[in-house]
Design goal:
By secondary structure, this protein is mainly alpha-helical. The chain has 10 helices and no strands. Helices cover 67% and strands 0% of the residues. The chain is globular, with a radius of gyration of 18 Å. 35% of the residues are buried.
Length: 242
């Protein structure tokens, strides 16, 4: 099925993954902590190694050939480790110092990567690699987060014409949009818990390079929203105390 995909689809998705990596590195590099800045290259190397590991696992058909397992192998070896890292960052003091040092404006611009992701998902649907419900013609409205991100970054954080309360609300809405597509994608993927799209399931994420979506892009975007929400809530608390 995926062998017949037009080459521009995996190529553009690979470029989107690189874009996400660059935007995330740009965010870390612009940290207000010199220590975090010093570690930025090491973090970048770690992320590249992670992407390489996921590429190898996918190309070895670890994800696509074990669809009867529970939990799904892509969840077990791809998504869950990133979730545990995010949880660890929020639970540890050093992790929270790292989180609070990241610039909110960079975290907001990070969401731009969601626009090409949604275009790729639509092309994958047209080529019968994912169900319609995972596109903006179905249940996925995540593209709105990507389109609106530069507006909130520029007018809200550069020009300060949008209040922090509104930016906080935007982050909650975009987080909900992300969770919506993640849940629908998970329940559309061939596995013992599949609930949707049996006629045209979500098989793309089990193949390279699209496995980078749940194992890298989604965790990075999730981390960005959680970090932004934490920073905005702390800002709101300071205003109340003052």
């Amino acid at each position: 099925m995926l062998e017949s995909l037009p080459l521009y689809i995996p190529f553009i998705f690979a470029l989107t993954t690189v874009l996400t990596l660059i935007l995330f590195y740009w965010t870390i590099k612009n940290s207000n902590s010199e220590k975090v800045q010093q570690y930025s290259i090491k973090i970048l190397i770690g992320l590249i190694v992670w992407l390489a590991i996921q590429a190898v696992l996918t190309l070895l058909n670890i994800y696509s050939s074990n669809i009867e397992y529970f939990p799904p192998t892509i969840l077990l070896f791809g998504s869950l480790p990133t979730i545990f890292i995010i949880i660890g960052l929020f639970l540890t003091q050093k992790g929270r110092l790292f989180i609070d040092s990241l610039p909110l404006i960079n975290l907001t611009y990070l969401n731009i990567a969601r626009v090409p992701v949604e275009l790729v998902l639509f092309w994958l649907f047209l080529n019968k690699a994912i169900p319609e419900l995972m596109t903006f013609e179905g249940r996925n409205f995540d593209v709105l987060a990507g389109i609106s991100a530069p507006i909130f970054a520029y007018f809200g954080l550069t020009k300060r014409k949008i209040s922090r309360k509104v930016i906080l609300l935007w982050n909650f809405i975009c987080l909900a949009l992300l969770l919506n597509i993640v849940i629908n994608a998970f329940l559309s993927t061939p596995s013992p818990v599949q609930k949707f799209a049996f006629d045209q399931p979500n098989i793309a994420i089990l193949h390279f390079p699209f496995s980078w979506l749940p194992t890298f892009i989604v965790p990075v975007v999730l981390f960005g929203h959680l970090t932004s929400i934490r920073q905005l809530l702390k800002y709101r608390e300071r205003l109340i105390k003052n």
